[in-house]
């Protein structure tokens, strides 16, 4: 018992000493941000300035205590990660290329005992450059304008050797600048193009500009009876816009509306083109546009032509087609009434354009429709001409002047159930989303918003 008491006494005497020892370690050096005064660190360079390209650089480090070195910047790698006291170490510093438009700075920290002993500032330069908001631009054949945004980190100029286009301003400095392009009307029979040169320092970027022809080529034996070149800022009075709920036809997912949604419009006429916009609104629903030309009267026979730039994305279903005017749906329902599809394309099968005819005896519900499909490189993203030549006895569709589909009354049958194409039809332009065909492989909402662009619609009839 006495021995136990002595042990207890010894513990009681030792405890205060332990506590005092712990307190004596809690000086200012516990703060990792406090300056280190008891460790000496020497480096071959106190700061590093490097070029914008990827590279490797050496730094010699020696300290009077064991040390480590690191950098938090993702674009910097440091090897090895440290060394022992009083031993020089060559540290390799690797940097990735700086593709940003400004310099970037990183801190390389040498620490010892958990405290910062030295900080080396690494500065990486940047490439003098200017970036345009687009590299390709298509302009209407009418007198038209467009904007591009130039973002630069130094002075720049932009120029073209084409006399038909003006650029304002033609030069600028650091930051963002909106550059206005204005093209004179192209009355030539062919499209024309030029290349703008955006120069900043020793770097040059090309911007290709294509202007469509504004000339009207009249098919032999025909005369122009109606057209819309979309040169104003509103739809012409002959167009009627549809306002339909989702699922109204073909199980399509979009809502057709002519009214703005969230400040956006589905039908916009600007810069000499009609834009049919399809987008998802804040309510989670998809909105798009559909318009009919003179649906109450239409035209009987003729040459119908439109130049169209198709959108891309799984779920898109743009079309240029025709339906009969003033149909009595009770006595002449679809498909007995007839349907002429001049051009259809679905984004799930990109750049394959098709033409079809639907009648009571020949339609897709029976798998008997008269149809033809062709692969057209660039159908999505560039303009092409889609046309229909319709006479009393024959229907021919064209893609850029090449025959797509040919059908005759003699081959299909002369009765109404086989050939109902003997009264007035009217043209339709629309951009559907999903539906029986547009969504046959599903839809990708990430593709939205998308736009179908129409340069013109022209109708010719025989003299």
Overview of the structural elements:
With 463 residues, the chain is mainly beta. Helices cover 7% and strands 47% of the residues. The chain has 3 helices and 35 strands. The longest helix is centred in the N-terminal third of the chain and has 24 residues, at 2-25. Mean pLDDT is 91; it is low at 1-29.
Break the fold down into its secondary structure elements and pairings.
Elements: H1 2-25, E1 41-43, E2 47-50, E3 55-63, E4 67-71, E5 76-79, E6 82-83, E7 89-95, E8 104-112, E9 115-124, E10 130-132, E11 136-139, E12 144-152, E13 156-159, E14 165-168, E15 171-172, E16 175-183, E17 192-200, E18 203-211, E19 222-228, E20 239-241, E21 255-256, E22 267-270, E23 273-280, E24 286-288, E25 290-293, E26 302-309, E27 316-324, E28 339-344, E29 352-358, E30 370-375, E31 383-390, E32 394-399, E33 402-408, H2 409-412, E34 425-433, H3 435-438, E35 450-462
Parallel strand pairs: 2-9, 11-18, 21-24
Antiparallel strand pairs: 1-3, 3-7, 4-6, 4-8, 5-7, 8-9, 10-12, 12-16, 13-15, 13-17, 14-16, 17-18, 19-35, 20-25, 22-23, 23-24, 23-35, 25-34, 26-31, 26-35, 27-28, 27-34, 28-29, 29-30, 31-32, 32-33
CA-atom Rg in angstroms: 36 Å
Shape: elongated
The number of helical runs is 3
Look at the helices and sheets and give the structural class.
mainly beta
The largest sheet is: 10 strands, mixed
| Range of strand content | over 45%
What is the terminal-to-terminal distance? 132 Å
- Low-pLDDT runs: 1-29
Helix content: under 10%
Number of strands: 35
Please tell me the overall pLDDT. Answer: 91
């Amino acid at each position: 018992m006495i021995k136990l008491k002595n042990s207890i006494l010894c513990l009681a005497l030792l405890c205060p000493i332990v506590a005092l020892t712990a307190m004596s370690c809690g000086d200012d050096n516990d703060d990792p941000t406090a300056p280190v005064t008891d460790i000496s660190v020497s480096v071959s360079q106190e700061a590093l300035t490097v070029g914008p390209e990827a590279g490797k650089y050496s730094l010699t480090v020696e300290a009077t205590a064991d040390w480590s070195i690191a950098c938090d910047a993702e674009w910097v790698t440091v090897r090895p990660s440290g060394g022992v006291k009083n031993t020089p170490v060559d540290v390799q510093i690797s940097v990735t290329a700086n593709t940003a438009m400004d310099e970037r700075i990183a801190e390389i920290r040498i620490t010892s005992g958990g405290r910062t002993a030295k900080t080396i500032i690494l500065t990486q330069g940047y490439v003098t450059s200017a970036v345009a908001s687009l590299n390709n631009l298509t302009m209407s054949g009418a007198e038209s304008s467009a904007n591009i945004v130039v973002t630069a980190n130094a002075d720049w100029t932009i120029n073209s050797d084409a006399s038909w286009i003006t650029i304002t301003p033609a030069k600028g400095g650091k930051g963002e600048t909106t550059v206005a392009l204005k093209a004179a009307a192209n009355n030539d029979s062919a499209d024309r193009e030029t290349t703008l040169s955006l120069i900043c320092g020793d770097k040059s970027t090309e911007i290709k500009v294509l202007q469509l022809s504004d000339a009207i080529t009249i098919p032999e034996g025909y005369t122009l009876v109606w057209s819309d070149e979309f040169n104003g800022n509103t739809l012409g009075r002959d167009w009627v816009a549809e306002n339909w709920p989702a699922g109204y036809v073909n199980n399509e997912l979009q809502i057709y509306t002519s009214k703005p949604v969230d400040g956006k419009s589905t039908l916009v006429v600007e810069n000499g083109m009609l834009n049919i916009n399809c987008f998802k609104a804040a309510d989670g629903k998809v909105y798009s546009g559909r318009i009919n030309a003179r649906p109450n009267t239409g035209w009987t026979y003729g040459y119908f032509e439109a130049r169209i730039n198709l959108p891309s994305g799984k779920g898109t279903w743009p079309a240029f087609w025709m339906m009969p005017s003033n149909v009595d749906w009770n006595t002449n329902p679809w498909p007995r009434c007839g349907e002429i599809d001049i051009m259809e394309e679905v984004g799930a099968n990109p750049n394959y354009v098709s033409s079809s005819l639907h009648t009571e005896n020949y339609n897709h519900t029976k798998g008997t429709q008269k149809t033809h499909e062709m692969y057209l490189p660039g159908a999505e993203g560039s303009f092409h001409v889609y046309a229909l030549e319709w006479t009393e006895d024959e229907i021919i569709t064209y893609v850029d002047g090449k025959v797509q589909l040919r059908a005759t009354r003699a081959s299909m049958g002369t009765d109404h159930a086989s050939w109902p194409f003997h009264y007035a039809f009217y043209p339709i332009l629309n951009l559907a989303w999903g539906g029986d065909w547009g969504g046959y492989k599903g839809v990708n909402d990430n593709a939205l918003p998308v736009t179908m662009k129409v340069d013109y619609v022209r109708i010719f009839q025989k003299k």
